Amino acid sequence: MKTLLYLLFFLSPLLATSQSLEQEIHDYRNKQIQEMVKDEFGPLRQNQIGYVTFFLPKQDYVVTADVEPLFNEPTFRMPTYDGTSNEYKRFGVLHFELHGQKLALTAYQSVALFQNPTYKNHLFVPFMDNTNGETSYEGGRYLDLSTTDIKDGKIKIDFNKAYNPYCAYSNGYRCPQPPKENILTGITIDAGEKKYKGPKNERNVNKNIAKNFNENEKTIINAADENSLMHVYQITENSELAVLKKPSEDINYNDPLIDKLAARMLLTVKNPEHAGVGIAGPQVGINKNVIWVQRLDKKEEPFEFYLNPKIIWRSKLIRNGSEGCLSIPEIRQDVKRSYAIKLQHIDRKGQVKEELIEGFTAVIFQHEVDHLYGILFPDRIEESSKIDYVSLKDKVEFQIKKETIRP
Ligand code: ZN
Q1: pTM of the model
Q2: Annotated catalytic residue within 193, 240, 323, 368
Protein backbone atom coordinates (compact mmCIF):
# COMPACT_ATOMS: atom_id res chain seq x y z
CA MET A 1 0.00 0.00 0.00
CA LYS A 2 2.74 2.34 0.97
CA THR A 3 4.54 1.60 -2.30
CA LEU A 4 1.40 2.27 -4.30
CA LEU A 5 0.79 5.58 -2.62
CA TYR A 6 4.42 6.47 -3.14
CA LEU A 7 4.11 5.63 -6.84
CA LEU A 8 0.85 7.54 -7.26
CA PHE A 9 2.30 10.54 -5.56
CA PHE A 10 5.27 10.66 -7.84
CA LEU A 11 3.61 9.49 -11.06
CA SER A 12 0.56 11.69 -11.07
CA PRO A 13 2.32 14.92 -12.01
CA LEU A 14 3.98 13.06 -14.89
CA LEU A 15 0.65 11.66 -16.07
CA ALA A 16 -0.93 15.07 -15.88
CA THR A 17 1.84 16.61 -18.02
CA SER A 18 1.68 13.98 -20.73
CA GLN A 19 -2.11 14.21 -20.92
CA SER A 20 -2.02 17.98 -21.21
CA LEU A 21 0.72 17.75 -23.85
CA GLU A 22 -1.44 15.32 -25.84
CA GLN A 23 -4.40 17.67 -25.57
CA GLU A 24 -2.31 20.72 -26.44
CA ILE A 25 -0.83 19.04 -29.54
CA HIS A 26 -4.21 17.65 -30.58
CA ASP A 27 -5.79 21.12 -30.41
CA TYR A 28 -2.83 22.73 -32.18
CA ARG A 29 -3.01 20.29 -35.10
CA ASN A 30 -6.78 20.47 -35.38
CA LYS A 31 -6.70 24.23 -35.55
CA GLN A 32 -3.98 24.12 -38.21
CA ILE A 33 -5.91 21.60 -40.34
CA GLN A 34 -9.23 23.44 -40.01
CA GLU A 35 -7.58 26.69 -41.08
CA MET A 36 -6.10 25.07 -44.17
CA VAL A 37 -9.39 23.40 -45.16
CA LYS A 38 -11.74 26.35 -44.61
CA ASP A 39 -10.04 28.42 -47.33
CA GLU A 40 -11.20 27.12 -50.72
CA PHE A 41 -7.90 28.34 -52.17
CA GLY A 42 -5.95 26.79 -49.30
CA PRO A 43 -3.55 23.85 -49.66
CA LEU A 44 -5.75 21.11 -48.18
CA ARG A 45 -9.17 19.73 -49.18
CA GLN A 46 -11.65 17.95 -46.94
CA ASN A 47 -10.97 14.61 -48.70
CA GLN A 48 -7.25 14.87 -47.86
CA ILE A 49 -7.60 15.32 -44.09
CA GLY A 50 -7.59 11.57 -43.44
CA TYR A 51 -4.09 11.34 -44.94
CA VAL A 52 -2.57 13.92 -42.61
CA THR A 53 -0.87 11.89 -39.87
CA PHE A 54 1.39 12.60 -36.91
CA PHE A 55 3.85 10.90 -34.61
CA LEU A 56 2.48 10.46 -31.09
CA PRO A 57 3.24 13.53 -28.95
CA LYS A 58 6.22 12.93 -26.67
CA GLN A 59 7.42 15.10 -23.81
CA ASP A 60 11.11 14.51 -24.64
CA TYR A 61 10.62 16.45 -27.90
CA VAL A 62 9.84 19.61 -25.97
CA VAL A 63 13.18 21.33 -25.37
CA THR A 64 14.35 24.66 -23.99
CA ALA A 65 16.83 26.46 -26.21
CA ASP A 66 19.29 29.24 -25.44
CA VAL A 67 18.74 32.05 -27.91
CA GLU A 68 21.91 33.52 -29.36
CA PRO A 69 20.71 36.78 -30.93
CA LEU A 70 22.30 37.88 -34.20
CA PHE A 71 22.87 41.54 -34.99
CA ASN A 72 23.32 43.45 -38.24
CA GLU A 73 22.50 40.40 -40.33
CA PRO A 74 22.04 41.13 -44.04
CA THR A 75 18.85 40.01 -45.74
CA PHE A 76 19.23 37.04 -48.06
CA ARG A 77 17.03 35.11 -50.47
CA MET A 78 15.99 31.66 -49.28
CA PRO A 79 15.29 29.44 -52.32
CA THR A 80 11.83 27.90 -52.59
CA TYR A 81 10.91 24.57 -54.18
CA ASP A 82 9.03 26.29 -57.05
CA GLY A 83 12.28 27.78 -58.35
CA THR A 84 11.88 31.25 -56.84
CA SER A 85 13.03 32.60 -53.45
CA ASN A 86 11.83 34.77 -50.56
CA GLU A 87 13.72 37.37 -48.61
CA TYR A 88 14.66 36.53 -45.00
CA LYS A 89 16.92 37.72 -42.25
CA ARG A 90 18.67 35.47 -39.71
CA PHE A 91 17.24 36.40 -36.29
CA GLY A 92 19.14 34.14 -33.92
CA VAL A 93 20.61 30.71 -33.30
CA LEU A 94 18.71 28.39 -30.96
CA HIS A 95 21.05 26.08 -29.02
CA PHE A 96 19.49 23.05 -27.37
CA GLU A 97 20.05 19.46 -26.40
CA LEU A 98 17.91 16.65 -27.77
CA HIS A 99 18.39 13.01 -26.74
CA GLY A 100 21.82 13.86 -25.40
CA GLN A 101 22.99 15.62 -28.57
CA LYS A 102 23.93 19.29 -28.67
CA LEU A 103 22.14 20.87 -31.64
CA ALA A 104 21.46 24.29 -33.12
CA LEU A 105 18.80 25.69 -35.43
CA THR A 106 18.63 29.17 -36.90
CA ALA A 107 15.38 31.13 -36.62
CA TYR A 108 14.55 33.48 -39.51
CA GLN A 109 12.34 36.51 -39.98
CA SER A 110 10.53 36.98 -43.27
CA VAL A 111 11.23 40.45 -44.66
CA ALA A 112 7.72 40.64 -46.15
CA LEU A 113 5.93 39.44 -42.98
CA PHE A 114 8.05 41.65 -40.72
CA GLN A 115 6.31 44.68 -42.25
CA ASN A 116 2.90 43.24 -41.34
CA PRO A 117 1.91 44.11 -37.73
CA THR A 118 0.17 40.73 -37.25
CA TYR A 119 3.29 38.75 -38.10
CA LYS A 120 6.13 41.02 -37.06
CA ASN A 121 7.03 38.76 -34.12
CA HIS A 122 6.93 35.58 -36.18
CA LEU A 123 10.03 33.38 -36.28
CA PHE A 124 10.33 30.77 -38.99
CA VAL A 125 12.38 27.64 -38.30
CA PRO A 126 12.59 25.30 -41.30
CA PHE A 127 14.65 22.16 -40.64
CA MET A 128 15.57 18.71 -41.86
CA ASP A 129 16.63 15.59 -39.99
CA ASN A 130 17.08 11.90 -40.70
CA THR A 131 13.35 11.26 -41.12
CA ASN A 132 12.88 13.40 -44.26
CA GLY A 133 11.99 11.28 -47.26
CA GLU A 134 11.49 8.29 -44.98
CA THR A 135 8.80 8.83 -42.38
CA SER A 136 8.46 12.60 -42.89
CA TYR A 137 8.10 14.93 -45.90
CA GLU A 138 11.14 14.92 -48.20
CA GLY A 139 11.26 18.73 -48.42
CA GLY A 140 11.76 19.25 -44.68
CA ARG A 141 9.42 20.51 -41.99
CA TYR A 142 8.69 23.87 -40.38
CA LEU A 143 8.25 25.21 -36.86
CA ASP A 144 6.63 28.54 -35.98
CA LEU A 145 7.94 30.46 -33.00
CA SER A 146 7.47 34.01 -31.75
CA THR A 147 9.91 36.57 -30.44
CA THR A 148 7.39 37.14 -27.63
CA ASP A 149 8.05 33.56 -26.40
CA ILE A 150 11.65 34.41 -25.55
CA LYS A 151 12.01 34.70 -21.77
CA ASP A 152 15.40 35.43 -20.16
CA GLY A 153 17.20 34.47 -23.34
CA LYS A 154 15.44 31.11 -23.60
CA ILE A 155 12.68 29.75 -25.83
CA LYS A 156 10.69 26.52 -25.82
CA ILE A 157 10.84 24.43 -28.99
CA ASP A 158 8.17 21.76 -29.32
CA PHE A 159 9.03 19.38 -32.15
CA ASN A 160 5.60 17.79 -31.73
CA LYS A 161 4.39 20.92 -33.55
CA ALA A 162 6.65 20.43 -36.60
CA TYR A 163 4.45 20.61 -39.70
CA ASN A 164 4.69 19.97 -43.42
CA PRO A 165 5.17 22.72 -46.02
CA TYR A 166 1.98 23.28 -48.06
CA CYS A 167 3.85 21.80 -51.04
CA ALA A 168 3.38 18.37 -49.41
CA TYR A 169 -0.36 18.53 -50.18
CA SER A 170 -0.62 20.80 -53.20
CA ASN A 171 1.22 22.19 -56.18
CA GLY A 172 1.31 25.95 -56.70
CA TYR A 173 2.92 27.02 -53.41
CA ARG A 174 6.27 28.65 -52.84
CA CYS A 175 7.79 26.59 -50.01
CA PRO A 176 11.20 27.63 -48.64
CA GLN A 177 13.94 24.99 -48.67
CA PRO A 178 15.57 24.60 -45.25
CA PRO A 179 19.03 26.25 -45.47
CA LYS A 180 22.14 24.09 -44.98
CA GLU A 181 22.69 25.35 -41.43
CA ASN A 182 19.29 23.88 -40.45
CA ILE A 183 19.93 20.38 -41.76
CA LEU A 184 20.39 18.26 -38.64
CA THR A 185 22.35 15.25 -39.73
CA GLY A 186 22.67 12.34 -37.41
CA ILE A 187 19.43 12.82 -35.53
CA THR A 188 16.01 11.28 -36.04
CA ILE A 189 13.17 13.54 -34.99
CA ASP A 190 10.17 11.23 -34.98
CA ALA A 191 7.85 13.91 -33.67
CA GLY A 192 5.39 16.22 -35.37
CA GLU A 193 3.79 15.65 -38.75
CA LYS A 194 4.51 12.48 -40.71
CA LYS A 195 4.97 12.11 -44.45
CA TYR A 196 1.78 12.93 -46.37
CA LYS A 197 0.77 9.97 -48.56
CA GLY A 198 -2.59 11.18 -49.89
CA PRO A 199 -3.62 12.62 -53.28
CA LYS A 200 -1.96 15.91 -54.30
CA ASN A 201 -3.93 19.04 -55.22
CA GLU A 202 -3.48 21.54 -58.00
CA ARG A 203 -3.83 24.94 -56.37
CA ASN A 204 -6.93 26.80 -57.55
CA VAL A 205 -6.19 30.11 -59.24
CA ASN A 206 -7.64 32.68 -56.89
CA LYS A 207 -8.75 35.63 -59.00
CA ASN A 208 -10.21 37.31 -55.92
CA ILE A 209 -6.79 38.18 -54.52
CA ALA A 210 -6.09 40.32 -57.60
CA LYS A 211 -6.01 44.03 -56.86
CA ASN A 212 -6.53 47.24 -58.79
CA PHE A 213 -3.73 49.76 -59.21
CA ASN A 214 -3.25 51.77 -56.03
CA GLU A 215 -3.27 55.58 -55.94
CA ASN A 216 0.50 55.86 -56.27
CA GLU A 217 0.48 53.50 -59.27
CA LYS A 218 -2.39 55.41 -60.88
CA THR A 219 -0.40 58.60 -60.54
CA ILE A 220 2.62 57.01 -62.25
CA ILE A 221 0.50 55.62 -65.11
CA ASN A 222 -1.42 58.90 -65.58
CA ALA A 223 1.61 61.17 -65.31
CA ALA A 224 1.79 61.35 -69.12
CA ASP A 225 -0.26 60.21 -72.12
CA GLU A 226 -0.17 56.77 -73.68
CA ASN A 227 2.44 57.82 -76.25
CA SER A 228 4.99 58.64 -73.56
CA LEU A 229 7.87 56.54 -72.35
CA MET A 230 8.12 55.60 -68.67
CA HIS A 231 11.09 56.07 -66.40
CA VAL A 232 12.99 52.77 -65.96
CA TYR A 233 13.85 52.15 -62.29
CA GLN A 234 17.55 51.56 -61.57
CA ILE A 235 19.20 49.47 -58.81
CA THR A 236 21.64 52.33 -58.28
CA GLU A 237 18.86 54.51 -56.77
CA ASN A 238 17.93 53.29 -53.28
CA SER A 239 14.26 54.26 -53.48
CA GLU A 240 13.97 52.56 -56.88
CA LEU A 241 15.84 49.46 -55.67
CA ALA A 242 13.23 49.09 -52.91
CA VAL A 243 10.49 48.89 -55.58
CA LEU A 244 12.54 46.46 -57.68
CA LYS A 245 13.03 44.18 -54.65
CA LYS A 246 9.42 44.27 -53.48
CA PRO A 247 7.23 41.28 -54.42
CA SER A 248 4.39 42.32 -56.75
CA GLU A 249 0.67 41.52 -56.51
CA ASP A 250 -1.77 40.09 -59.03
CA ILE A 251 -3.63 42.75 -61.01
CA ASN A 252 -7.39 42.67 -61.50
CA TYR A 253 -7.78 41.85 -65.22
CA ASN A 254 -10.65 44.37 -65.43
CA ASP A 255 -8.64 47.35 -64.24
CA PRO A 256 -9.36 50.25 -66.62
CA LEU A 257 -5.74 51.47 -66.59
CA ILE A 258 -4.17 48.23 -67.88
CA ASP A 259 -4.26 49.31 -71.55
CA LYS A 260 -2.57 52.61 -70.86
CA LEU A 261 0.14 51.03 -68.70
CA ALA A 262 0.69 48.32 -71.33
CA ALA A 263 1.04 50.92 -74.13
CA ARG A 264 3.54 52.98 -72.13
CA MET A 265 5.58 49.94 -71.04
CA LEU A 266 5.77 48.71 -74.65
CA LEU A 267 7.14 52.05 -75.85
CA THR A 268 9.64 51.92 -73.00
CA VAL A 269 10.96 48.42 -73.75
CA LYS A 270 11.25 49.25 -77.47
CA ASN A 271 13.00 52.58 -76.83
CA PRO A 272 15.89 52.49 -79.35
CA GLU A 273 18.18 54.17 -76.81
CA HIS A 274 18.09 51.08 -74.61
CA ALA A 275 15.90 48.46 -76.21
CA GLY A 276 15.11 45.24 -74.36
CA VAL A 277 13.39 41.93 -75.06
CA GLY A 278 11.17 42.16 -71.99
CA ILE A 279 10.05 44.46 -69.17
CA ALA A 280 8.21 43.90 -65.89
CA GLY A 281 5.87 46.12 -63.83
CA PRO A 282 8.34 46.91 -60.99
CA GLN A 283 10.82 48.28 -63.55
CA VAL A 284 8.45 51.19 -64.17
CA GLY A 285 7.44 51.56 -60.52
CA ILE A 286 4.34 49.34 -60.66
CA ASN A 287 4.39 46.43 -58.17
CA LYS A 288 1.76 44.46 -60.07
CA ASN A 289 2.17 41.20 -61.97
CA VAL A 290 2.42 42.44 -65.55
CA ILE A 291 5.16 41.79 -68.12
CA TRP A 292 5.94 42.32 -71.79
CA VAL A 293 7.98 39.58 -73.48
CA GLN A 294 9.30 39.50 -77.03
CA ARG A 295 8.20 36.14 -78.43
CA LEU A 296 11.36 35.22 -80.31
CA ASP A 297 9.79 31.77 -80.81
CA LYS A 298 6.94 33.18 -82.94
CA LYS A 299 6.85 34.42 -86.52
CA GLU A 300 7.61 38.17 -86.78
CA GLU A 301 8.83 38.02 -83.16
CA PRO A 302 5.96 40.05 -81.63
CA PHE A 303 5.97 41.59 -78.15
CA GLU A 304 3.18 40.10 -75.99
CA PHE A 305 1.68 41.39 -72.75
CA TYR A 306 0.92 39.00 -69.87
CA LEU A 307 -1.21 39.44 -66.76
CA ASN A 308 -0.37 37.57 -63.55
CA PRO A 309 2.18 35.21 -65.13
CA LYS A 310 3.38 32.28 -63.00
CA ILE A 311 5.93 29.64 -63.93
CA ILE A 312 4.32 26.40 -62.81
CA TRP A 313 7.00 24.03 -64.08
CA ARG A 314 10.72 24.43 -64.84
CA SER A 315 12.83 21.84 -66.68
CA LYS A 316 15.76 20.26 -64.87
CA LEU A 317 17.74 20.86 -68.06
CA ILE A 318 19.64 24.10 -67.57
CA ARG A 319 21.15 26.43 -70.17
CA ASN A 320 23.81 29.03 -69.47
CA GLY A 321 23.42 32.28 -71.38
CA SER A 322 24.26 35.96 -71.27
CA GLU A 323 21.69 38.37 -69.79
CA GLY A 324 21.37 42.04 -69.15
CA CYS A 325 18.63 44.07 -67.49
CA LEU A 326 17.18 47.52 -68.22
CA SER A 327 17.35 48.23 -64.47
CA ILE A 328 21.01 47.23 -64.06
CA PRO A 329 23.29 49.55 -65.99
CA GLU A 330 26.09 48.28 -68.18
CA ILE A 331 26.53 44.67 -67.15
CA ARG A 332 25.83 41.47 -68.99
CA GLN A 333 26.62 38.17 -67.31
CA ASP A 334 26.00 34.47 -67.80
CA VAL A 335 22.94 33.23 -65.93
CA LYS A 336 21.76 29.64 -65.55
CA ARG A 337 18.08 29.17 -66.45
CA SER A 338 15.75 26.26 -67.15
CA TYR A 339 15.72 25.36 -70.84
CA ALA A 340 11.91 24.97 -70.82
CA ILE A 341 9.04 26.19 -68.64
CA LYS A 342 5.28 25.93 -68.29
CA LEU A 343 3.71 29.36 -68.02
CA GLN A 344 0.32 30.11 -66.52
CA HIS A 345 -1.35 33.49 -66.92
CA ILE A 346 -4.73 35.21 -67.06
CA ASP A 347 -6.06 36.49 -70.38
CA ARG A 348 -7.95 39.78 -70.80
CA LYS A 349 -11.27 37.97 -70.20
CA GLY A 350 -10.02 36.53 -66.91
CA GLN A 351 -9.52 33.00 -68.25
CA VAL A 352 -6.56 30.94 -66.99
CA LYS A 353 -4.16 29.97 -69.81
CA GLU A 354 -1.18 27.61 -69.78
CA GLU A 355 1.63 27.20 -72.29
CA LEU A 356 4.94 25.33 -72.66
CA ILE A 357 7.82 27.55 -73.79
CA GLU A 358 11.44 26.64 -74.56
CA GLY A 359 14.76 28.13 -75.59
CA PHE A 360 15.76 31.78 -75.25
CA THR A 361 12.09 32.89 -75.05
CA ALA A 362 11.76 30.75 -71.90
CA VAL A 363 14.77 32.63 -70.50
CA ILE A 364 13.08 36.00 -71.11
CA PHE A 365 9.98 34.78 -69.28
CA GLN A 366 12.08 33.54 -66.34
CA HIS A 367 13.93 36.87 -66.14
CA GLU A 368 10.72 38.95 -66.27
CA VAL A 369 8.71 36.74 -63.88
CA ASP A 370 11.66 36.90 -61.44
CA HIS A 371 11.22 40.70 -61.36
CA LEU A 372 7.69 40.13 -60.03
CA TYR A 373 9.16 38.32 -56.99
CA GLY A 374 11.82 40.97 -56.48
CA ILE A 375 14.52 38.66 -57.85
CA LEU A 376 17.23 40.22 -60.05
CA PHE A 377 19.61 38.28 -62.27
CA PRO A 378 22.66 38.77 -59.96
CA ASP A 379 20.56 36.96 -57.27
CA ARG A 380 20.29 34.02 -59.66
CA ILE A 381 24.04 34.01 -60.31
CA GLU A 382 24.73 33.93 -56.58
CA GLU A 383 22.18 31.15 -56.06
CA SER A 384 23.56 28.92 -58.83
CA SER A 385 27.14 29.43 -57.60
CA LYS A 386 26.19 27.23 -54.62
CA ILE A 387 24.98 24.35 -56.79
CA ASP A 388 27.04 21.75 -58.64
CA TYR A 389 26.14 21.22 -62.30
CA VAL A 390 27.22 18.47 -64.66
CA SER A 391 27.87 19.36 -68.30
CA LEU A 392 26.05 17.16 -70.79
CA LYS A 393 28.54 17.74 -73.61
CA ASP A 394 30.06 14.25 -73.41
CA LYS A 395 26.78 12.53 -72.67
CA VAL A 396 24.24 13.82 -75.16
CA GLU A 397 24.32 15.89 -78.31
CA PHE A 398 21.44 18.34 -78.66
CA GLN A 399 20.32 19.45 -82.12
CA ILE A 400 17.55 21.66 -83.44
CA LYS A 401 15.88 22.00 -86.86
CA LYS A 402 17.24 25.00 -88.74
CA GLU A 403 15.55 28.32 -87.93
CA THR A 404 12.94 26.92 -85.61
CA ILE A 405 13.59 28.58 -82.26
CA ARG A 406 16.46 30.34 -80.57
CA PRO A 407 17.97 27.71 -78.28
ZN1 ZN B 1 15.39 42.85 -65.95
Answers
A1: 0.89
A2: 368
